[in-house]
Amino acid sequence: MSDELPQCEVSPPTGSSESSPAPSRRGFIATSTVLGGAVVAGGVIGGPSLLGPEEASAADALPSSRVSLTVNGTRRTVTVDNRTSLLDLLREHFGLTGSKKGCNAGACGACTVLVDGRRVNSCLTLAVRLEGVEVTTIEGLADGDQLHPLQQAFIDEDAFQCGYCTPGQILSGVGCIQEGHTGSPEEIREWMSGNICRCGCYVKIVRAVHSTAGRK
Ligand code: FES
Ligand code: FES
């Protein structure tokens, strides 16, 4: 879609209402609304477009890019709309729905995955910036039927109820352990504070991370 918005051509008031009438407030709003609808016609909102054929096809061609990355050990190459988040790439393009969309705004941690071993909020990460990286999601954490030690610890400690936050909690816990921020329950709480569990399983989650770090 073009970034160029059509300019609303409204002549300034001249003082002579006969030669160049000033637009009424109602007329101005009507004009703006019609032009605004035309701008988004190629993307979201339907309706008759006021754009010419060339402008309309430019608006239709959303900027997209090709990106290659490795997800859970498998190389993937895909062409995506430049605005696609890593979370949407995983869920909508690759069918990896283990990473959850909670807030979609970086506030809950449900979408946490590892990128080159570092935990990130995938909802805030643009997919097209990830050329060549390695992504690990909850689907790639186990070794066949052998659960990752932190996955097993979540089961042993009964560290989840609804489970919606659990994939993000586990990936964040893996990152926390790899970073060495597990010296005490307080330290784990601090470094896991970006992951919200609305069921309130925090005590057991911290216990699971602490016990797994202790076994390393
Ligand atoms: S969905 Fe990404 S932080 Fe909430
Ligand atoms: S287990 Fe329900 S939100 Fe965490």
From TrEMBL:
Q: Superkingdom of this entry's organism?
A: Bacteria
UniProt key word Lipoprotein: no
Tell me where in this chain the 2Fe-2S ferredoxin-type domain is found: 65-141
InterPro entries documented for this protein:
2Fe-2S-bd, 2Fe-2S-bd_dom_sf, 2Fe-2S_ferredoxin-like_sf, 2Fe-2S_ferredoxin-type, 2Fe2S_fd_BS, Aldehyde_Oxdr_Iron-Sulfur, Beta-grasp_dom_sf, TAT_signal
PROSITE patterns per the record?
Answer: 2FE2S_FER_1 (PS00197), 2FE2S_FER_2 (PS51085), TAT (PS51318)
UniProt lists compositionally biased (Polar residues) regions at 13-22
Pathway annotation: Alkaloid degradation; nicotine degradation
Which CDD domains does UniProt cross-reference here? Answer: fer2
Residues covered by region (Disordered): 1-26
Alphabetically, the GO molecular function entries are:
2 iron, 2 sulfur cluster binding; metal ion binding; oxidoreductase activity, acting on the aldehyde or oxo group of donors
Sorted keywords for this record are: 2Fe-2S, Iron, Iron-sulfur, Metal-binding, Oxidoreductase
Q: What is this protein called?
A: Carbon-monoxide dehydrogenase small subunit
